[in-house]
Amino acid sequence: FAAMSAWDGADKLAQVLADLEGKRAGEGHQVNASKIKAIVSIAIKRAKFFKFIVHDVERFIRKGSYPTRIRGLFIIDAICKVSKERSGSSDVYCPRFEKSLVE
Length: 103
Fold this sequence. Notes:
Blueprint: H1 10-21, H2 33-45, H3 50-63, H4 66-87, H5 93-102
Helix pairs in contact: 1-2, 1-3, 2-4, 3-4, 3-5
C-alpha cells in the first residue's frame, strides 16, 4: 500500500495489509489475532505517524472487497481500543478514524 517508505514501518504495515487482503501467497486469507496484533503494534509504536497509518488503513478498506472491508473494521477497532487504553485522553487514532467514518 505505501508506495515508498515515507515513515519508519510503512513497509511492514503494507506487507501485513497485503497479507490480509490476500494478494500475497494466494487468496482467501483469514483475519487472525497475530496479524491484527502486528498492525496494532506498528500503529502504537509509531503513533507520531498516525496520519499515514490511518490513511493506509482507510485506503485498504476503500479499495478492498466486502470481506476486506470487514477486516479493515477489525483493524480500526483494535487500534482504537489499544490506543485509548494506553493513551487515554491523548489518543490520536479514534478522532482521526472518526472523521472518515462519519463522512
